[in-house]
Amino acid sequence: MQQKLEFILKRLSVLSRRAWAMINLYCHKAFSFTVKHIGKGWACICNTSYKFKVRCKAHWPAVRQRLKLYAALTRLNKPIGILLLLWPTLWALWIAARGIPDTDVFIVFVLGVVFMRSAGCVLNDIADQQFDPYVSRTKNRPLADDRISSFEALAVALGLIFIAFLLVLTMNWLTVQLAFIAIILAGIYPFMKRYTYLPQFFLGLAFGWAIPMAFAAQTGSVPQIAWLLLIANILWSVVYDTMYAMVDREDDLKIGVKSTAILFDDADRVIIGIIQALVLVTLITIGMQAQLSFYYYIGLAVAACFFIYQLRLIWGRKPEQCFKAFLNNNWFGLTVFIGLFLDFIINNNV
């Protein structure tokens, strides 16, 4: 019995050694196979990445030039339009949220301002493609001098609108519904200068539609004060875009483009002053409804000084001074926002 047991143990020992030897052999072969093919795969990856790098290096000048054209097409190299759209949006967010807007709402609307303003610039250039070559200020735009095709420009605009709409889809349903109106306004505004002397009114409506959207996103409703703020923005847009139109008035008269600068004619400065006063009165009314305090009205007083300075700039109707007055409106919007920001922070109206 003992001999059989020893024999079995010896056999098991021999079999285990053979099995272990076979396992080592297969593991070695598997390892060698893996290393060999990983080496080939890595070599392939390195080769592909090198070829990609070489191609990118070869095509980068053309790509960079194209990106510069897109930046010019969307006016990213001239951010004044983004700022003029951003400030009323921030006014709305701060009033709606009593000083502390939700982080996701804030991010969506700031990005939305950039994307929609850029898309609006492209749509405007598409609509004005037959006019821009005859206006000294716009004749060198990428679409006007055929460096970008109409189809390519339209693709860029639709892409930007699509991205902006994806952002809006993260908000509530009321905001999404209002976004459809925003898209319509962005689409029709560029064509208004062909049919009406009030394209600046439609610009204010298109730019200002972010205001009811901001209230809807932040509070789930659009109260009366949101519409008052929209009215203030429309009036302000008429002010600064009339100054802008005064730069091109002579060219616009030649090619038949309409604007408030042409409509107001010799009364332009007086009418702009009256509209500026209406903007301030509307903003004061908003402050009373929102129960804002001293700091907000200090901001309005400083902003009023910028309005007076702008009137002084446009008084001689020199194009370069009118353009300078247009640019100065950025400081008006910023000052109103600073007044709102300080009011909520200092008075703890949050």
Q: What gross morphology would you assign?
A: globular
Annotated CATH topology of one domain = Four Helix Bundle (Hemerythrin (Met), subunit A)
Radius of gyration based on Cα positions: 32 Å
Number of helices: 13
Largest sheet properties: none
Element-by-element helix/strand order: HHHHHHHHHHHHH
CATH fourth-tier homologous superfamily of one domain: UbiA prenyltransferase
Query: What's the pLDDT, averaged over the residues?
Result: 88
In CATH's first tier, which class of one domain applies? Answer: Mainly Alpha
Spatial gap, N to C terminus: 93 Å
Task: Give an account of the 3D structure.
This protein has about 350 residues and is mainly α. Among the domains are: about 55 residues, no CATH class; about 170 residues, UbiA prenyltransferase (Four Helix Bundle (Hemerythrin (Met), subunit A)). It is built from 13 helices and no strands. The longest helix is centred in the first third of the chain and has 72 residues. The termini are far apart.
Summarize the structure.
The protein has 350 residues and is mainly alpha-helical. It contains 13 helices and no strands.
Topology, pairings included?
Elements: H1 2-73, H2 80-96, H3 103-127, H4 150-168, H5 173-188, H6 199-208, H7 210-219, H8 224-247, H9 249-255, H10 260-264, H11 268-289, H12 294-314, H13 319-347
Q: Which structural traits does this protein have?
A:
globular, Four Helix Bundle (Hemerythrin (Met), subunit A), mainly alpha, 13 helices, single chain
